[in-house]
Amino acid sequence: MNITLICVGRIKESFYRDAVAEYAKRLSAYCSFRVIEVDDEPDTGNSDAASQKIKDTEGDRILKHIDPGMYVISLEIKGKKLDSEKFSQVLSDLFVSGKSDIAFVIGGSLGLSEKVSSRADLKLSFSDMTFPHQLMRVILSEQIYRAFRIMRGEPYHK
Fold first, then answer.
1. Residue pair 105/116 in contact by the 8 Å Cβ criterion
2. For 22-55, how does the pLDDT look when each residue is reduced to its tens digit (9 = 90+)?
3. Distance between CA 140 and CA 6 in Å, rounded?
4. Is 103 left (phi over 0), alpha (psi -120 to 50) or beta?
5. Which domain holds residue 20?
6. Domain count for the chain
7. Is residue 56 part of a domain?
8. Any idea what the CATH number is for the domain that residue 123 is in?
């Protein structure tokens, strides 16, 4: 099982990096886990056209890391909301059906380009709230770890 997080931007704060590294270490018992960071574009904030260009540029960078056979789960505010048990079941069902190469995508501060969103096999939302992208990596990493623990019936959940 291969899990890839494709994220726009770099984590600047060491406490976020440390948290993601801790979950990556824990996940190594269950899967191959890696994080790919693509460069973000500076937000000029001048117009919708400029924002669209930024999303498209970041989207092209993301798509370069998505292989044709990958099952892609994008994090989007209007995506499907799942509790931890259901999320675990979705991952389990993917593995059982032979989809063992999964990419999670976290966009930049302006969101995802339509090209990336349309490539997603599942659009997932963790909340109607907005989270810092660096924190979202930690939350997602933790939920993936929790999902594996639930799949295996191991103590951790609740």
1. yes
2. 999 999 999 999 999 999 998 776 788 888 999 9
3. 12
4. beta
5. 2-151
6. 1
7. yes
8. 3.40.1280.10
